[in-house]
Amino acid sequence: MRADLVLTNGKIFTMNPSQPHAEAVAIKDGKIVQVGTNDDVNRWIGKDAKIIDLKGKTVVPGFIDTHIHVADFGTVLAWLDLSNVRSIQELQAALKARVQRTPRGKWVIGRGWDQNRFAEMRLPTRHDLDAFSADTPVILYHECGQICIVNSKALELAGLTKQTVVTGGDIDKNAETGDPTGVLRDAATSLVWKFVPMMTEDELVEAVSLAFEKIVKAGVTSVCWIVLSSMELPVIKKLHVQNRLPLRVYVVVPVDLLDSVLASTLPKQSADNALRIGGVMIFADGYLAARTAALFQSYKDCPDSSGKLLYTQEEMNALAVKICKANLQLVIHAVGDKAVDAALNTVEGTLKEACGKELRNRIEQAAVLNEELLQRMKNHKVIVSVQPCVVDSEFRVWSAAERLGPERVQWLYPIRKLISEGVKVSGGSDCPMEPLSPLLGIKAAVTREFFSEECVTVEDALRLYTIDAAYAIFEENIKGSIEKGKLADLTILSRDPWMVEPKEIGDIKVEMTIVGGRVVHT
């Protein structure tokens, strides 16, 4: 038997403790058949084998992103990119060009501007947009996503006037006239967004295909696709039927779509390991940035608020049992300590009794913890899914220290404590809210600035996106490490993450992505 593909002369980090390093890999029929020295794989080389000389480049198991909103990412990629504009004048030029090729009646949506980069050093207003978009509704999101600027046409369609008030957000108004300036903040952004027409199914299929191109380019070979709307389910099915999934997809749906999934013809697991309907998510609470995460004690910067649980304990327990009996993974979004406590109550009190077996239950975020919660997660083998770039944003953008106060903030995303206690932790991006690149996530975990005692090693950070991520989706026996018999999912890097300065890890380039022995990016 001869290999289809052979990689030689490489620096291969296998994430397999019994054989941590190698220099060559042989692949046949989408699986790894040999890992070792160049001599070890020579016998697999036949006249039809494709040979890739790595010339000392680094190979790691294919990255696994355990929390990404694929449909949202595709949608955003279709928007006007304003991340590089350096003035309101440049913004206007980009808007003008987009409006000219936008069909009448369609919205122009953009993202990525930041007034701090503008030469004018001010927020744009609707008047800056109107001259180039009088008849085209426009909504342009700030880089942080919590602020947008809309033009007069969008204000008109949404019915926003000087009399409009909103809870949980702000509509900036002219100090003299009281008229909206077009700047909307926080909850006010949804007042316009709900009037933006949804993409058609075919449009979303194409948008997701574009997202996949970017995802494999980042070295990602598997994703946990966090579904947010029912429209995404037929898109997933169509992409699978049309053989347009360039990587492996583990689908996690919100609990309100559970019945739809059970009634659908989507495969629970495809024969080619390309698609699996795996998890169901219960949202126990909201987010720290909006003060909707459920805390036992009030927010330090808002004593009247402590967030709230979105379900009673009884409701959460009943939903969890339903998920368990459907033989799907329980995934609970829980940010605040009160929400994490409720999630653990569900795991401890109902699931083992109802289902008669230990399950790999996941908590997404598990942001605000304490020693007791950590030990309970350890005792019940709960998996924690984190997004390291989110950690940095919580401190740098969303003022976590002011939100939580000096004591609680020390227990915000204690990744190193979790790992040292033996809790399985997986890594994701939360893209498009945060950058896609796993290398940026690894850098964020290794170089954490706030409470640097929670920095982790390069190897532990890499585990978040490889073998431990595979464990989080029940697939550590078929992927997550470079071992004989496993799927040939590999990522080739331009540099060795162990040999560069930690702050340079995010600058490492992905030179090739291989899924099932097939090169999907080079």
Layout of helices and strands:
Blueprint: E1 5-8, E2 11-13, E3 21-22, E4 24-28, E5 31-36, H1 38-42, E6 50-53, E7 58-61, E8 63-68, H2 70-77, E9 80-81, H3 88-100, E10 108-113, H4 126-130, E11 138-142, E12 147-150, H5 152-158, E13 169-173, E14 180-186, H6 189-193, H7 201-217, E15 220-226, H8 232-241, E16 248-254, H9 258-263, E17 275-283, H10 313-325, E18 329-334, H11 337-355, E19 362-365, H12 371-379, E20 383-386, H13 388-396, H14 400-408, H15 415-420, E21 425-427, H16 438-446, H17 458-464, H18 467-472, E22 490-493, E23 510-515, E24 518-521
Parallel strand pairs: 1-6, 2-7, 8-15, 9-10, 10-11, 15-16, 16-17, 17-18, 18-19, 19-20, 20-21
Antiparallel strand pairs: 1-4, 2-3, 4-5, 7-22, 11-12, 12-14, 13-14, 22-23, 23-24
Helix pairs in contact: 2-7, 7-8, 10-11, 13-16, 16-17
What does this structure look like?
There is one protein chain. The chain has 522 residues and is an alpha/beta fold. It folds into 3 domains: 5-56, Roll (Urease, subunit C, domain 1), CATH 2.30.40.10; 107-193, Roll (Diaminopimelate Epimerase, Chain A, domain 1), CATH 3.10.310; 201-476, Metal-dependent hydrolases (TIM Barrel), CATH 3.20.20. The chain is built from 18 helices and 24 strands. The strands form 4 sheets. It has an 8-stranded parallel sheet with strand order 8-15-16-17-18-19-20-21. A 6-stranded mixed sheet has the order 3-2-7-22-23-24, with helices on one face. A hairpin with a 4-residue loop joins β11 and β12. α2 (70-77) crosses α7 and α10 packs across α11 (337-355).
